[in-house]
């Protein structure tokens, strides 16, 4: 891995071992058709965005970049970076959601909409019966629901509605 990076780039490594490993990691994630300059540029931009620190935030960002670039389900991102359609600075500043493949984005949207649907308050459950007779139209088709409107020791309030209004 390191030999392929050195063969692809005449530029020497940095003094920081963590940064060198991150360059190799990004280079390997970009695959064979990449150039070392792109990997080094991404690492430099990421390091600059973290105020030249190689702490936990920097390492988490580099792991996120690595995993998103290495994802076999997301070849479009890798190709756009290799071909130069996305600048190294833009790659370094992208969030994990921006780097996600289209299928992952659609899945997240579906999950979010499902969760929103499940989180909605349950409406009043109504039942249809012929147990009650309408005083106005004298039909027995009506819907009703019961609701606890007072304290627990009181009976539930029954609300009735006509199904067919004449």
TrEMBL record:
Query: What parts of the sequence cross the membrane?
Result: none
The UniProt entry's GO CC annotations, sorted and at most eight, read: nucleus
Q: Which UniProt keywords apply?
A: Elongation factor, Metal-binding, Nucleus, Protein biosynthesis, Zinc, Zinc-finger
- Which Pfam families does its entry note? TFIIS_M, Zn_ribbon_TFIIS
One GO-annotated biological process of the protein:
transcription elongation by RNA polymerase II
* Molecular function terms from GO: RNA polymerase II complex recruiting activity; RNA polymerase II transcription regulatory region sequence-specific DNA binding; translation elongation factor activity; zinc ion binding
Record-annotated TFIIS-type domain positions = 130-158
Q: In this protein, which residues make up the domain named TFIIS central?
A: 18-127
UniProt-recorded name of the protein: Transcription elongation factor S-II
